Amino acid sequence: MGSWDDLVGSALLGTERRRPAGVVGDAEEAAVALLDAAAAGVIRRRAGVTPAAAGTRPGLAPADRRPDLPEAARRRLAMLLADRTADAARGRRGATPNLAELLPQWLAAARREGYAAPHALLPALLDAARARTDLRTDALALAGPRGLWLAALNPDWKFALRAGQGAAAAEEGDAEQLWEEGLFAERIALLTRMRLADAAAALALLESSWRTERAEDRLMFLDALRTGLSPADEEFLEQALNDRSRNVRTTAAELLSALPGSALAARMAERARSCVSLSPEGIVVEAPYACDPAMERDGVAAKPPSGRGERAWWFGQLVDAAPLSTWPARLGGRTPEEIIALPVLDDWQPDLHAAWCRAAVRQRDTGWARALLGPPPKPAAPVTAVGDPAKLLSILPGPERGAWVAEFIAAHGLSEAFQMLSVCAVPWSRPLGRAVVDALDIAREGGSYPWSFSGVMGLAERCLDPDAADQVAVLTAAAEEPPDGSPGAGTYWSEAFQRLTGTLRLRALMLAELRVPQPSGSSIPGPGRA
Amino acid sequence: MDTEARWTADQVLALAPDAASRKAGARLATPAPWSGTGVAGAAVWGLCKGSGRTPYQTVVDLGGPAFRCSCPSRKFPCKHALGLLLLWAEGDGGPIAAAAEPEWVEQWTAARRKKADERAQAPSSGSGKAAGPADPDAARRRADRRAIRVEGGAVELEQRLADLLRGGLAGADRDGYRQWDEIAARMVDAQAPGLASRVRELGAVTATGGDWPSRMLEETALLHLLARGYLGRERLPDPLAGTVRARVGFTVDSAELLAGATIRGHWQVLAQYDSADDRLTTRRIWLYDEGAGRFALLLSFGAAGRAPELVLPLGAVLEAEVAYYPSALPLRAVLGPQHGTAQAESVPRGMPVAAALDAYGAALADDPWLDAWPVVLADVVPIPGATRWQVADATGEDAIPIAGAGPQWRLAALSGGHPLTAFGELGPTGFRPLCAWPAASVIPTPLTA
């Protein structure tokens, strides 16, 4: 009987056309004979299979000396990762805790505690990091050397290598090679990382190739200089004011204006000062009448967005970019608080104050930010926000921020508070947490539906101190519905508070699981149990 | 045994019928919704606050394991049972402490004990009601009728295969599933479901691309061999005839099997995984008695979309009886009475690649239709490849391709390039890893998610 290939050939063409070697009889008999032979053949083939030659073995993953996760924490991670993929099938959440948003917190906390991710979960962890860029830094840190080793085997996980390579390159001095040969994302990551470690070296690297970069890339690289910005960057930025690309010029100007000692800042101060003077009635604004080429070179956009007057537009940009130290000197040695209290003539106050707000944020001037924010408005007072309070808050020290927002919420409730809450430090301070929970309770008593506050609820699940769980738990009891309330709201509120309590308790548990001390003299040597 | 050895949380979670249940169960694994919990002997119980006014009564018999919950869920075990077991798994200092069984628990455990006692006594009381059919003559007549119908099916199949080979397979990839589905339907009519499912799979071979003609000839030839084997069954030795009957699709009543000889052993649960088609979910559980060098495969079925009922904690060692289905190569078995559970104390001894392939070859001599031969490989390393991964001996050059896609990532993560022990199934397309023991762990890590 013929070889296996001979049999396959006959089978393909059919025994009417081609018979296997040595088979006699008509086509039907030959077909049966072919099947008999093939049956013997397939068993011979399968039973006689010999080992293949081993391919190229991967290298050994570097050892990881970090401790394994405590048992409960390992399980928690498995659950959070499984939850990520199962989330698609979620309808109304009812009273069950919200796990999806806990993964980032978990990863950050586990990283702080210095654990290594369990090996068995590395594929799921890398998949999660692939899907969500905000998880990458913590996920990759946890995954550690074995995660990097594994990622090298799967093209889907290339991103890990890029990040990892960048880190390694920055440390090992291969930065130049990566800078010259890397992909755009790799280069941006490298530049940002180097700015943190050695801002001057990063600038030198950028200068080495600046002229050959495309305009879009130049813009992004320039933007990366925000990290670690210092007077040492001024010379480079000043040159960039002559760039061919308008966006690059504007960004360079913006960066220079954040350096109050820069020549550009001085030029802008000069221009702004000439527009603002002090009269006995208050501040007088005389906005510029033209936007000359020198102003444009310093980043002033000549054409206002529709609906804004040219002169107000130019004026705003000048004040934005002028160092705030300009003003006490110009306005009779007053403090920022006193300056802000001054009347501004001819309806220029909104423009002037808004520009100062932007300048305070850009120059990270806490004194001015505090002055512009003022004390939180009193309950009766209308909330006339100057500029963007959330942005001003973001440059104040954490505790001060929390206290301000707490007082604001106590006075005005939650409807305007979402932006402010999202800039507060996590977990929220005790007074802030109490203010939020109280405001939610008041909203419930007011008879509105909880989903009107779903944004704040979502934030609270992530940011409330887990210690507040007991305070929230009190509210989970379905209260009497107010006569003028929305029908059924009470039940929904109770459910929403239950979910919040559940999530908070889960967070507390989750963090506690990470802090469980490892059994001393652990009998598990070597790599982690999975 | 005073109380059962606590399971690990992983073992509990492996009982979950699906990912959603696992998630829901884990959410309930906090003390908050629970009250009146306790453990006594093999029973764990508790009251779980649900959305309704009265809490659900949840009780688990660890010996089965068996579950009962007053919740309306059709999932099995339900999330309450899983949550309860997770709490219990936290250990002696955990939230579930020894207590006296409350009345509702006691009623259930007593009823279960009674049933078990009845079962235990049934075989000893001669051919009791459960052991034999009500009317042996009628049953024999039914069996004879079926044998004749299956014979007719096998003859027809032989004819169809011969026709196919006469005309050639070349057109098979164009015709798609239709002709195969039609033949499969004829086999179902002939009461030969084993033949039917093989025929249906044949229809999918062309879609696998590459060298499909060779694979199709293999499968066609094996189908031919099976049909011929059935038609000539009178002349086969009994064990091989048993194999042929099982492959053709005759089933044996599990109660009848257990009434016969059982084998008591220390069975470690090595793997549990489900596969589903549009009608049926099939769960495969591999048990291994290392002392006796014996594997057993338990199959459990659920209607489409429902998880099969049998669940066993992965890695645990059951002291239990099993009964094998009659076969020249006894693998499939049914689980009989259990006498206790313990945790594994060591990693099973495995073999190198070449020895595993030899064993697979020898097994094929007993069952040519074998497509999953259980094997523990020791000191192997997963190796990535452009198209397929391999597992290779750490100290030699022998390798086997890894079958299927997916498990290699976790296997590789566990290995990190270092040798490990892996359990899996050897088949015609390679080694399908199911669990692995990374260095220093005696509890296997499942590779199927």
Automatic annotation (TrEMBL), chain A:
Identify one Pfam family in the record: DUF5691
Q: Origin, by domain of life?
A: Bacteria
Q: Which InterPro entries match?
A: DUF5691 (IPR043746)
Please report the name of this protein according to its UniProt entry. Answer: DUF5691 domain-containing protein
Automatic annotation (TrEMBL), chain B:
User: What highest taxon heads this organism's lineage?
Assistant: Bacteria
Annotated region described as Disordered, given as residue ranges: 109-144
Where is the signal peptide, in residue numbers?
none
Q: Which PROSITE patterns match?
A: ZF_SWIM
Q: Where is the composition biased (Low complexity)?
A: 122-136
The residue stretches assigned to a coiled coil in this entry are none
- Keywords of the record: Metal-binding, Zinc, Zinc-finger
* Stretches assigned to the SWIM-type domain: 56-89
- This chain's protein is named SWIM zinc finger domain-containing protein
**The organism's taxonomic lineage, starting at the top:** Bacteria, Bacillati, Actinomycetota, Actinomycetes, Kitasatosporales
